[in-house]
Amino acid sequence: MRDNIMITFANQKGGVGKTTLCTMFADYLAAKGESVLVVDFDRQQTIYSKRQEDLGKYEGVRLPYTVQTFDIKDTNNVREFLTNLRNGYKGFVLMDTPGNLSQQGLVPIFALSHYIVCPYQFEATSISSTATFIGFIAKLQHMLPIMKSRFIFVVNKWDKRYGRKAELELWDKTEERLRHFGLVAPRIEVKADMQRYNTIELMGPQNDIVSPTFDFMYQQIIEPKELTK
Quick check: is 229 in a domain? Predict the structure, then answer.
C-alpha cells in the first residue's frame, strides 16, 4: 500500500449520501488504527459542523482524526494544498466535495485523488447523473494523462424490499456496466441508524450496515487488483 491514499467522495447528484459515507468511512478507518485526515471542501461544511457538534456531545473523548475545511474557489491554492498533502501526509486523506461540477477547484481534487468513491441510488435521475459524472471524469483523464484516479461505485440507501422484476434486472445490469469503469462495492441498505452518524465512531448497528461495503473498499485499496473490462 502507498504511504498516502487520497480518496474523494463525489457525485454531481445531491442527496446520495457522499458526506455520510465519507464521515463513516473515516470512523471505520480510524477504528482500524489508520491515520486519517478529513478535508471538507463542501461549502455547507457538513462534516466540519458535525465535528463541532460532537465536541460538545463527547466532551473529553479522544478525537480519532482531524477534520478541516478548505475553500475551493482558488484552483492554484487547492492544487498546492493537495500536492503538499500527497507528498507529506502519511495515511488516508478523505475529501468531501460539493455536487456542482462547474467549480474549477474540483479539477485538482479529482486529478490528485487515488480513488473517487461515487455513491448513487437505484433511481433514474441518480443513475443518469452518475453516468454524466463518469463522462466528466473520463474527459479530465483524457486532458490530464497523469490522472490515475480509480472509481469505487456504491449503491446507497438501497431498499431490498422494493423493485419489480424488470427493475431488479435493470439494477443488476447497471452494476455490471459500472464494472467497466471501476470497482462496484456491496450495496448499503437504507436504515434509520445511518442518519445517526457522528465523527467519533461507528455505533453498533451502523457498523453492521456498512461493514460489507467498507471491508470491500479497504481490501481493494490495501491490495489493488486490476480491472477486468
Answer: no
